[in-house]
Amino acid sequence: MYSRLTLFYAATGTALILLMVAGCSSPKSVTNALQGVQIRQPLVASTSLTLNGIVASIVSPTQFIYQSGYPHGHVPVLYSSSTLVPAGSSISVGQVVSVTGSFNAQGQLIANAVTTTVNLSGSVSSIISPTEFIYQTGNPHGHVSVVYSASMVSPSGARIRVGEMVTVTGTLTGQLVANSVSVGPLASPTPTASPSASPTPVPTGPYHVATWALDSYWAQGENASATSVNQLVSYAEGNGKSPADCHSGSQSCKAVFYLDPNHSYDDTPSSCMSHPDGDVVAAASEDWFVHDAGYTDSAHRVHGKSSSGCVIWEFNPNATGVQSWWRSYLRGNADTYDEYIVDNDPMELLNESYFSPSGGGCLPWPTYCYTTQEIANDAAEVQAHANFVNAMSHSDGSPMYFFYQQASLDNVSLDLSALTTTNRFIGVTCEGCIATTAIPVRPTMYAKVLNEMAAVNAMSKIFMLISDGESSAGSSTQILQRLVTTGVIWLGYSEGHTIVEPNLEAMNDNLAVWPEDLIYPSGPIQSMVSGANDLEVAPGVWRREFTTCYQAGRFFGRCAAIVNSTGSALPIQAAWLSKTYGHVVTLSGGDALSGGTASVGTSTFVPNVTTIGASAAVLLAQ
Questions:
Q1: pLDDT tens-digit profile of 274-300?
Q2: Tell me, which fold does domain 31-115 have in CATH?
Q3: Do the two domains 31-115 and 118-186 of this chain adopt the same fold?
């Protein structure tokens, strides 16, 4: 994949080395062999310090491991009941705690005090029930669900209202279970209704479209709370943080594990070393590799070379040794995950075989592979990938389910054949198909993506659109990519069958979920049946309208998406629309947790006057 990034910490002597390795076009993601339980041990005892973090696991009644973030990561804590503050409190997985103590020579934090309550202030964003509300606490916890009772609220008789500033003290484990709620002034004036006015119920709906985001310790998503992840993300991909977040409390997101069993970097030179690549290469027999047609020896392995000179072997998914190794690896490192994503898994033999001008591919090297000894053609490639996922199962014997990467778009029937060959493939991804870091938008691909979305929807499988980019937050390039990504998603959106991963941030620790993802279009007036042509209103221009649209769960009226693949800016014609709209949705700032906004009611839309840019998209609101 273009943008998969995992941070791997390795202690060498007294130095801490940070290896950052990106996907397909450069050395692929390094996978942390310990996954969610990686502990950096200091080499010498330290002076007293205070660390804040989330309990990751309970080892014994006197030891737990918790995630304290950079630079210590997962820390083993030794404590006793007498060190708990307040007295009589307890420790549970997912709980936010503060520990004061010092490290011993074994890298354990000897606790003098373990504070189990938190004190967070913020603005109430929604009222769930008379005993629950959600408020925005900012970094690092984001939106937090609070469970409380009226007797806890001070001053006595105060009410919890949207916009109210509150300070809550309590225990945070997914939800914040309050001990006390102190009410302050409203964050902004709230108009008082006329005594004669009757309140009109506002319909509520989904909080966001189906989203996929990276959620890892030491990387993207690092500072997002479990509450924020579950509120904003449908599929959380990452190391141990994603299952910890998704499986805290009542599960609302699915934890996804990344693997690439098809291409593995050799460990020569040592700068190419990564895990689990080095491990699987070291364990491999010759029949684990793919070879040039007519050969089975090591000198004729199908391979490639990265720009830095690292050799990349192609592995044979049919080999029982490969299947057995990965089944054991997944059970040992990712058994608790809900879904899995297989990188470098296209169904075309030509695209599957790693090739680079610097070397590799097939004989005569370097050249493209049109057939190999183990996999003769595209149909055999599909079956090989199916055989691999069919061999994967959890420790209890239950099947594992996979998304495969990447859709070819030029051969939709071949892409779909994998989804019919085995039920273990539940969806296909399309990364960089309409937006990449190098090419901000790819208008010639819009129709192809829409056609494949329609075909996958018709099969009741899942299509995931991944857009990549690293432009600064709120920049014109980023907003263009965000609007095009959202526009295409709306054109083909089908609940349960469409996921968006707009991985469009320069590197930071936030979730790549955007305010426009919190707009949920439903009640479509038009839909694709055969493909993009069903929505075309002018050559290279598509639109789709919806009767019932929500923003963060709140109904606001009709909405529509228009996408323009032509090279010219065009006035949006009234004839393109069956309903009337008053506003253009405007985006500002960055991701949802950093305060970015999507306004559905500030910018005026005028039919036949308002334009849509070349290769761009416009979202409309009633």
A1: 899 999 999 999 999 999 999 999 999
A2: OB fold (Dihydrolipoamide Acetyltransferase, E2P) (2.40.50)
A3: yes
